[in-house]
Specification:
single chain; 281 residues; mainly beta; 2 helices; globular
């Protein structure tokens, strides 16, 4: 049972294949975020941004690096990424470790674990600490990824992290967990195989994506995970491989969901209605 669910989660987070074009060609999307008025996608071939322009959305790559960003997180100002380089010989290793950008992804600096770590689950908490899942542990860095301390992990199969003012959320093959201190963890009532999670700055709104043998489901909580409602009013929200999620830091009603192919939808009313920002089909 666990191995089947693990395979479902890995499909969303690890597979890479060529997809359709919506302004630019994008290969497999691993994470999304919304910063200012821009949507950012961490993809197999670099960081992509989308911004509204003349009544439509304009999409392009950020900077010149075309690295495979398997892990991506930001606090709205500073970006962090991990994954694989496009040229291992030139880079000096097959794994990026932890990299940081202070100009929205145009220039990156190496912070730690170069050649050692491919960290898929990253998050920045409200204090500015960087959190990551690596080698079975949650790790915390107070200095932007230079140094790390191990923290307690709720599961050996964490695939995504998200931080709210009151808790760290861990999406795992065996369910969704939360902790107020990254030491004591509680499991939510959601089913197993949670592949993505997003947490709003209001401390109350949480999004989670779940997959199972029957397909995908997107869930929302408006009371910090005590109760959950299923969002099912758009086909993308039930994508078989799950969806990637983000929440506007300025407005917890403003939600974003994307599939691995780069189709992105948004809602301005807590998921009651949706509009398509990018159609990769």
């Amino acid at each position: 049972m666990l191995s089947a669910l693990a395979m479902a989660s890995v499909t969303l987070l690890a597979g890479c294949s060529q997809v359709g074009n919506a302004g630019i060609d994008v290969e497999h999307v691993h994470a999304i975020d919304y910063v200012g008025d821009r949507v950012f996608m961490a993809t197999h071939n670099g960081l992509v941004f989308g911004a509204p322009s003349a009544g439509a959305w304009y999409w392009n790559y950020v900077g010149h690096e075309r690295f495979d960003y398997m892990g991506f997180a930001s606090d709205g100002q500073t970006f962090y990424a991990s994954g694989h380089p496009d040229d291992a010989v030139t880079f000096g290793g097959t794994m990026l470790g932890v990299r940081r950008s202070t100009d929205q992804g145009h220039l990156w600096e190496q912070r730690s674990l170069k050649g050692e770590g491919d960290l898929h689950a990253l998050a920045v908490d409200p204090s500015g600490d960087l959190l990551a899942f690596w080698r079975g542990s949650i790790m915390r860095s107070p200095d932007g990824g230079l140094s790390w301390t191990n923290q307690a992990s709720p599961s050996a199969h964490v695939v995504a992290l998200a931080a709210s003012p009151s808790a760290l959320w861990a999406a795992a093959v065996d369910g969704l967990y939360s902790s107020p201190d990254v030491a004591n963890w509680s499991k939510t009532t959601l089913p197993a195989a949670i592949v993505a999670v997003a947490a709003a700055r209001d401390g109350q709104t949480i999004l989670a994506s779940q997959v199972d043998a029957k397909g995908g489901a997107t869930w929302i909580s408006r009371d910090a995970g005590l109760t959950w409602s299923r969002l099912a009013n758009h086909a993308l929200l039930e994508a078989p491989q799950g969806v990637l999620l983000a929440i506007d830091r300025r407005d917890p009603r403003h939600l974003f969901a994307a599939d691995a192919g780069g189709t992105i939808i948004s809602s301005a009313d807590s998921g009651q209605s949706w509009q398509t920002l990018r159609d990769a089909t």
